[in-house]
Amino acid sequence: MSSANDLASYESATFENLLATHAAATPDRTAYYLDDTAITWAELERSTVSAANALLSVGVEPGKAVALFSAGCPEWLAVWLATPRIGALSVPTNIMFKGDFLAHQLRDAGVVAMLVDAPRLEHVLAVADRCPELSTIFLLGEAPDAQIPANITIRPAGDLAAHDGSAVSGGTPLAWNEPATLMYTSGTTGPSKGAMLTQHCLISSGRVVAESGAWGPDDVLYGAVPLFHGSGILGLVLPTLINGSTSVIDNQFSVSGCWDRVRLYNATGFMAVGPMLMMLWGLPPSDEDAKLPIKVALIAPIPAPLHHAIEARYGLKLITIYGMTEAQPMTVLSVHDTAVPGAAGKASPNFEVRVVDENDLDVPAGEVGQIVCRPRYPHVMFEGYFGRPDATAAQTKNLWFHTGDAARMDADGNLFFVDRIKDAIRRRGENISSFEVEMVLMQQGSIAEVAALPVPSPLGEDDVKICVIPKPDAELTHEALMDYCVEKLPRFALPRYIEFVSMLPKNATGRVQKFKLRENAANDATWDVQAVGYVIKR
Q1: Sign of the alpha-carbon torsion through 194, 192, 450, 254
Q2: Is the pLDDT score of 1 beyond 90?
Q3: Closest of 309, 298, 330 to residue 214, by C-alpha
Q4: Under 8 Å between Cβ of 118 and 139
Q5: Of 482 and 185, which is predicted with more confidence?
Q6: Angle at 493 (CA atoms; ends 491, 494), nearest 5 degrees
Q7: In sequence order, what are the beta bridge partners of 32?
């Protein structure tokens, strides 16, 4: 696998250069399908230039921020690619945001213009008085009847394509090493922070992903992931922008329809996040499974016992990565590597990765510690948190970026994610990984999603609680689930409490907000092993 230093030159690592190359070489080839809407390389180049001129026409100046607050569509891509051409920052924004979440991000970034689709306009208008720099909204769809603040102008999104598409008429293009995108963190430990990412950082990350899957111009990549999420940009948009492949991006994930979409586009690559692959694994086996065109699937680590079983059932190769907004990906298991089930791979070519104790000393192989990293090359990592130098410094102690994640690393350098440090459970002197408990439970067969969390124990330390979403029509009882836990989990990791729920609270990046579950841990819907007199038969 190559490294960032293998690029022809650092200066070539810009969206403009990559897009121009493909538009010249294969102008009529489809670059992206967004919910079946196709856009060729030539069309994307023209729409990007036109969008840049449209932004200039409404006063977007170098250094200002433009938010993307819509479902994935060609206009989203055009604006995202256009902003660095005029020196502006793009701000991909979670389309589920509203109220304080939305206001904080728009105000923190100093957003002056936005791309918004009609279903979300009301949420923007509701917080407009808290976003003093916001002046222009490009609206996708029809505007509902609403009171428009006097300081905001709403323009049809069609204006983005109505300007000159041959040359950008102003602004100052961002250099390869200047921040181009603000990707906001999930905000699990406080208000979300804008990670400043250069074009070179994004392209270097995308290059590692593309090379880990051995994806080239003839590949078609499929994923039902949002563009505001790092996985959509990293796993689909960037590999195609880098190597000229085609990406098929759906805004909605369908368990029953996913493989039909893959077959329709003859997709050879597949991007899955969260529990997607586990949901698909839960479908009834079919003789058609092994006939899928997919050769490589990029996923988060899955239960180790299922790794080779999934590969065998679908006739594909699984690759895994570990990373976060600030450093992506830190580790990678590529198609060229021998798989170690349960591992997230070894250090990426762009990063040094260690597992350390509370004094930042390496822990012995196989022991749990915190993941830390640092870049091997310039500008392959985030440039810091926007407007928060103190937060940047606090995260980077002893010259290493501290992730807040716990993991083990074996003697060969394979990284095994254990937990978010704040979500770790300690019971009767034993450290328990909520992640590992969840991975075991997801193999039970009747569970759609699960979250394991610590709750205070009257004996000190923690007891274990699991919040479970049963699959539709599953006949799952507390006793049957506990029987499974007794069979599969070590005694110290057995849950004391079980609660069946219809949903799990999640943040902008899809992570379960366990602090909300902890706040409501003692409720009438919770089944207590001890209170009901369940006997552990072993």
Answers
A1: negative
A2: no
A3: 298
A4: yes
A5: 482
A6: 70
A7: 39, 247
Following DSSP, what letter does each residue of 302-344 receive, concatenated? --GGGHHHHHHHHT-EEEEEEEETTEEEEEEE-TTSPP-TT--
C-alpha torsion angle, residues 15, 16, 17, 22 (rounded to 10): 90
pLDDT at 256 over 70: yes
d(CA 199, CA 427): 45
Q: Are 415 and 354 in contact (CB under 8 A)?
A: no
Residue 4 pLDDT grade (very low, low, confident, very high; cuts 50, 70, 90):
very low
Residue 251: which of 469, 37, 450 has the closest Cα?
Answer: 37
Question: In this structure, what CATH number is given to the domain that contains residue 445?
Answer: 3.30.300.30
Rounded to whole angstroms, the Cα distance separating 417 from 396 reads 20
The secondary structure of the chain in percent helix, strand, coil, rounded to multiples of 5, reads: 30, 25, 40
H-run or E-run covering 220: strand 220-223
- Cα 211 → chain centroid: 19
pLDDT class for 371, splitting at 50, 70, 90?
A: very high
Tally the domains of the chain.
Answer: 3
pLDDT at 8: 46
Mark which of 398, 420, 442 sits at the end of a domain: 420
Does residue 5 carry a pLDDT above 60?
no
| Enclosing domain of residue 168 | 41-176
444 within some domain? yes
Q: Is there a single domain that holds both residue 246 and residue 311? A: yes
Give backbone dihedrals phi and psi of 407, rounded to 5 degrees, phi first.
-160, 170
Q: Indicate the residue among 393, 420, 447 that finishes a domain.
A: 420
Mean pLDDT of the chain: 91
**3-class DSSP state of 2:** coil
Pairing verdict, β 194-198 and 220-223: unpaired
In 228-292, which ranges are E strands? 246-249, 269-271
Q: What percent of the chain has pLDDT over 90?
A: 71
Which residues are CB-neighbours of 217 under 8 A, at least 6 positions away? 243, 244, 245
pTM (predicted TM-score): 0.83
The whole-angstrom separation of Cα 422 and Cα 432 is 12
Burial category of 259 from C-beta neighbours within 10 Å (exposed 0-12, middle 13-18, buried 19 and up)? buried
Helix (H, G, I), strand (E, B) or coil at 67: strand
Q: In this structure, are 125 and 147 located in the same domain?
A: yes
462 vs 309, more confident: 309
Q: Report residue 187's pLDDT band, with 50, 70 and 90 as the boundaries.
A: low
pLDDT digits (tens, 9 = 90+) for 96-105: 888 887 888 9
Distant-in-sequence contacts of 253-259, Cβ < 8 A, 24+ apart: 253/224, 253/225, 254/224, 255/279, 255/280, 255/282, 255/283, 256/283, 258/224, 259/288, 259/289, 259/292
Rounded CA separation 233/227 (Å): 6
Q: Does a cis peptide bond (omega within 30 degrees of 0) precede residue 119? A: no
496 and 522 in contact (C-beta within 8 Å)? no
Cβ-proximal residues to 454 (8 Å cutoff; 6+ apart), any chain: 423, 424, 425, 426, 427, 434, 462, 463, 464, 465, 518
